[in-house]
Structure formats: structure tokens, C-alpha cells
Specification:
It is a single chain. The protein is of the alpha/beta class and 281 residues long. The chain is 40% helix and 19% strand. The protein has 13 helices and eleven strands. It has a seven-stranded parallel sheet with strand order 7-6-5-10-8-11-9, sandwiched between helices. Strands 1-4-2-3 form a four-stranded mixed sheet. It starts with 12 loop residues before the first helix and ends in an 8-residue tail after the last helix. The relative contact order is 0.13.
């Protein structure tokens, strides 16, 4: 009978260090965050110099042997652990047996500007981590080149935000902690038109599309889930645009509105220049 695999101790310093990453202050101090489940861990392993450690149950290590191999190939330390240890580290109710420890991967805002992006999502005062992660996923799907979280928004590395991004966190540059005034000024200097998404906007998204004004480089600014964008932020934009409600719904939630706006810009940019595709690398 083969020997039982050696499991990491629940009292190991590595387990204790991983457990504390559920808290923002420790994530910021260590510049490390949790990536939970096979999808996120696979993405992290494929992102250069990101995955540091991986904790896996024996069953998960067998089921996802390819991911374990990718993690080791990326230079990550792999620890086998029992289910109680994984549950202790994980922030989900039903852990999937894999928890990765990853280095921060946010991009300096200056680097985003240097890349001359054509489509950017800006999250201003977005406080719900699930919404932040979902908007990031929408931006990735629409082919945006970058996402910016202002200094008043939620922590990008909140475990719920990481899960809600469904791997998109590893796909495109994300800048964090930038004052909204600096974001708008920098993007405008880079030739990007600033559109504020707001249900009370004076401009209608359908009208903007009909006028042909959305084919150029564009940044969408999305506000707080409950109260939208403050007046001082709206005044920074080149236009304040509402998504038209053609039915009887009272409004759209943040992530849905973001998806509509970002895809509208992506479509307009493809039509005007033929340079954007949902399959773009």
C-alpha cells in the first residue's frame, strides 16, 4: 500500500500567513491575495510571476493534476492539505479544494496611459466587491484595454471581487487607488473621450450611437451602486449618458449597465475603424 501523502500542518506558518490574506490590511502589507478554485488558480499559474503558493486537497490535486503541474511549472510551492485547512484558508462557503496565493498585479496608471487605450472602464466609488469584479469581467469580455479603480472604490483583491472577475483580473491591466480627477485628466490628455454613465444623464445612449460619436477612444465612468455619480464627477465628463429603459423596469444594476455601455462602445469602434473584435488578443 502506498504511503499516505504528507499534509501540511494546520498550525504551519504558511497556513497562518495564507489565512490572514482574507483581511485587506494584511493583503496590502504582504502585497499578496487569494485566488480560489480551479479557474482562478489556472489563470494565475498562466500569468507570469504571479502564483506564489498553492494549497490543494488530495482529491483536488488528483482531479486537477494539470493545474498542479502548471503551478509547479510556474515556480509555485504546492502544499497538500486536508479539507479543514482549505476551508480555514478559503473565504467561500463551499471551497473547491484549491487556494492559490498570488502577488499583486495592478498596473501603474501611467503605464495604461502610455499604451494609448481605446476603451477603458473607470470605477468611481464602487463599493461592492462583487460588482467591481463583474464590471471587470464585462470590460474584459467587451475587449477593453484597461480598468481603473479610483481611490474611493473597493479593494481590487477582495476575495469576492477576485471570484466575481472569473479570471478576468489576470487578463487586462488594472490600475488602483487613483483619484478620479487624475484619471479623467490623464485619459483626456491621452485623447480619450470621457463618458459618465448615469441613469439621470442628459444624453441617451441610443442617440450617441445614432450620432456616430462613440467610435473614438472612450472611457466610461461608473459610479456607486446606490447613489450613482456625484455632481462633481459628472461635471468632469464630456457627456453624461443614460442607458434608455424601453420597458417597465425601474433601472439597471451597475454591472448590467456597464456591460451595455462597454459593448456599445466596442461595437461603435469596430464599425468606425474595424480594429476591435471580441476575439482580439
Amino acid at each position: 500500500m502506498p504511503a499516505a501523502p504528507e499534509l501540511i500542518s494546520p498550525r504551519s506558518a504558511r497556513v497562518l500567513a495564507a489565512r490572514r490574506l482574507a483581511k485587506r490590511n494584511f493583503r496590502g502589507k504582504d502585497r499578496l491575495f487569494l485566488a480560489e478554485g480551479p479557474q482562478a488558480v489556472r489563470e494565475a499559474a498562466g500569468h507570469a510571476d504571479t502564483l506564489v503558493e498553492l494549497f490543494a486537497t488530495v482529491d483536488a490535486a488528483e482531479r486537477y493534476a494539470d493545474i498542479i503541474g502548471e503551478a509547479r511549472g510556474a515556480g509555485a510551492r504546492v502544499h497538500l492539505a486536508d479539507e479543514d485547512v482549505i476551508a480555514d484558508i478559503s473565504t467561500t462557503v463551499t471551497p473547491q479544494g484549491l487556494v492559490g496565493i498570488c502577488r499583486f498585479l495592478d498596473t501603474p496608471f501611467e503605464d495604461i496611459l502610455k499604451a494609448r487605450p481605446r476603451l477603458v472602464a473607470v470605477l468611481a466609488n464602487v463599493r461592492d466587491p462583487g460588482n467591481a469584479g463583474t464590471v471587470l469581467r464585462c470590460a474584459d469580455a467587451a475587449g477593453a484595454e484597461a480598468v481603473v479603480l479610483t481611490d474611493a472604490s473597493v479593494d481590487l483583491y477582495n476575495p469576492k471581487a477576485v471570484r466575481a472577475s472569473v479570471g478576468s483580473l489576470f487578463h487586462l491591466p488594472v490600475a488602483v487607488g487613483v483619484p478620479v480627477e487624475e484619471v479623467v485628466a490623464g485619459l483626456r490628455d491621452a485623447g480619450v473621450r470621457i463618458l459618465a454613465a448615469d441613469g439621470a444623464g442628459t444624453d441617451d445612449l441610443d442617440d450617441e450611437l445614432d450620432k456616430g460619436t462613440m467610435g473614438g477612444p472612450t472611457a466610461w465612468v461608473f459610479g456607486n451602486e446606490a447613489w450613482g455619480l456625484p455632481e462633481e464627477t459628472r461635471t468632469l465628463a464630456d457627456a453624461v449618458v443614460r442607458v434608455p429603459i424601453h420597458g417597465k423596469a425601474e433601472s439597471l444594476n451597475l454591472a448590467t449597465a456597464a456591460a451595455v455601455c462597454l459593448y456599445a462602445s466596442a461595437r461603435a469602434q469596430r464599425a468606425s475603424g474595424g480594429c476591435r473584435s471580441v476575439t482580439q488578443s
